Amino acid sequence: DFVRKLEDCEIKEQQCAVLEVEVTSDIADVVWQKDGIQLESSPGKIEMEKQGPIRKLFIRSTSVHDEGEYTCVLGDQECTAEVTIIELPPEILTQLQDTSVPRGEKACLEVELTKGDALVRWFKDDVELQFSEHIQLSIDGKRQKLKIYQAEESDAGIYSCRVGDQVSTARLTVEEPQVEFITRLPDVTMLPVGSDAEFLVELSRPDV
């Protein structure tokens, strides 16, 4: 028989939920269920403890997916409790970093969050960005990348992403690309006296 039955549990996300019963026998085994489905031990997540007449269920690193109705079955008896998880607001794990790119190249600003489904707003110089072919956002799980294609001087500025009440900021600098000689002047050019001389070089940029 149950001496002490389950009680409802409400905890914050990422904390460990502990459900506990007391039975009349030190050797009796119990079965734990969640929403009618039997639970199996999973180290670091679902753990079951038997200590004298006490039976405990540990739910570690809780998330909203652990919410539900938990049941402890002892023979033909059972007791039930509700586990409620208080969801934490998303946080910024990896901050934006200042970035410099040559004009015409792709710039990339990356941030990592605690949650992949977080609502993130991106700004440039405190004006919310409108995404286009020129400025695109890619999301890979908890990572978000702001990509600026063929960066121009007008793209330089202070970029920020805002998640709830958290803000991460970085400066994007767009530099003039280096100019290199593709074809150089010859070391020596021989010409007849009185003729015109023409010298040609080829550069890596056409706008110089």
UniProtKB/TrEMBL annotation:
Organism of origin: Triatoma infestans (Assassin bug)
The record's annotation in Gene3D superfamilies points to: Immunoglobulins
Can the keyword Ribonucleoprotein be found in this entry's annotation?
no
This protein's UniProt keywords: Cytoplasm, Disulfide bond, Immunoglobulin domain, Nucleus, Phosphoprotein, Repeat
Q: Where is the Ig-like domain?
A: 1-84, 90-173
Localization in the cell = Cytoplasm; Nucleus
**Protein name (record):** Titin
Q: Which family does it belong to?
A: Belongs to the protein kinase superfamily. CAMK Ser/Thr protein kinase family.
Q: Which GO terms describe its cellular component?
A: cytoplasm; nucleus
Report the Pfam families cross-referenced here. Answer: I-set (PF07679)
Keyword Cytoplasm listed? The answer is yes
* Chief location category: cytoplasm
